[in-house]
Design a protein that fits this description.
The chain is of the alpha+beta class. The protein has helices at residues 3-25, 55-64, 131-140, 148-166, and strands spanning 35-44, 49-53, 77-83, 86-98, 104-115, 122-128. The protein has a six-stranded mixed β-sheet with strand order 2-1-6-5-4-3.
Length: 168
């Protein structure tokens, strides 16, 4: 294994740990150092695509602004693979509480990460998850487990986005 490959694996493992800490503390500022100054980030939910450029915009738009209402959710990573300049991760949008059978309220997500040439920093990140499936999951979660901002503001907007995407 080359030194650069080992550094990229280490960086991704540190990112996963930092992401886990950030979701528990709801403080995403610790993710800034993982991105190059010209990094591109977007997430695509099938209904909406959000883009951010540079580490400050990535943290402030995606991880701070767009996490409002999701403060009691976590995003545990299940697996990852690194191949040259490319990394792939599998993680969960995990809601609060558990079902009566003990299983989690969760929806799968995946990320593609491209490392900067000759670097272990992230030059690009693309997160993918299905907003329609996430909305359906939110409907399964007891109302008392969802934060008021989620129930009253975000879910109605998400439902409308999904309906508009599906043409209904």
């Amino acid at each position: 294994m080359s030194e650069l490959h080992a550094r990229r694996i280490e960086m991704l493992e540190r990112f996963i740990e930092a992401n886990d800490t950030a979701s528990h503390l709801h403080d995403w500022t610790g993710l800034r150092p993982f991105y190059t100054e010209d990094a591109d980030y977007h997430y695509d939910t099938g209904a909406v695509r959000t883009e951010a450029h540079g580490p400050d915009e990535i943290v402030n738009r995606v991880f701070v602004r767009d996490q409002l209402g999701w403060m009691n959710w976590t995003y545990p990573f299940e697996s990852y693979a690194v191949n040259g300049e490319h990394a792939f991760t599998r993680w969960w949008n995990r809601g609060p509480g558990t079902r009566p059978d003990g299983s989690f309220y969760q929806v799968i997500g995946m990320s593609y990460i491209r490392f900067a040439p000759e670097s272990a920093l992230f030059a690009e990140q693309i997160d993918l998850f299905d907003l329609g499936v996430l909305v359906k999951l939110c409907d399964e979660i007891p109302d008392e487990l969802l934060l008021p901002v989620m129930r009253e503001k975000q879910l109605p907007v998400m439902r409308k986005l999904v309906a508009n995407t599906l043409g209904s």
